[in-house]
Amino acid sequence: MKYSLFKSRSGTNYIVPFIIVTSCFALWGFANDITNPMVKAFSKIFRMTVTEGALVQVAFYGGYFAMAVPAALFIRRFSYKSGILMGLALYAIGALAFIPAKMTGAYYPFLLAYFVLTCGLSFLETSANPYILSMGDEKTSTRRLNLAQAFNPIGSLLGMFVAMNFIQAKLHPMSSTERDQLGDEAFQVIKESDLSVLVTPYVGIGIFILLVFFIVLLYKMPTGEEHAGNQTGSNLSTKASLQRLYRDRKYREGVVAQFFYVGVQIMCWTFIIQYGTSVFMREGLTESAAEILAQKYNIAAMLLFCLSRFVCTFLLKYINPGKLLMILASLGGILMLGVIGSESRMGMYCLVGISACMSLMFPTIYGIALEGLGDEVKLGSAGLIMAILGGSLLPPLQALIIDWGAYYGQSTVNISFIVPLISFVVIVIYGKRTLKFYKNE
Question: Which of 74, 220, 341, 438 has a Cα at 20 to 30 A from 291?
Answer without folding.
Answer: 341
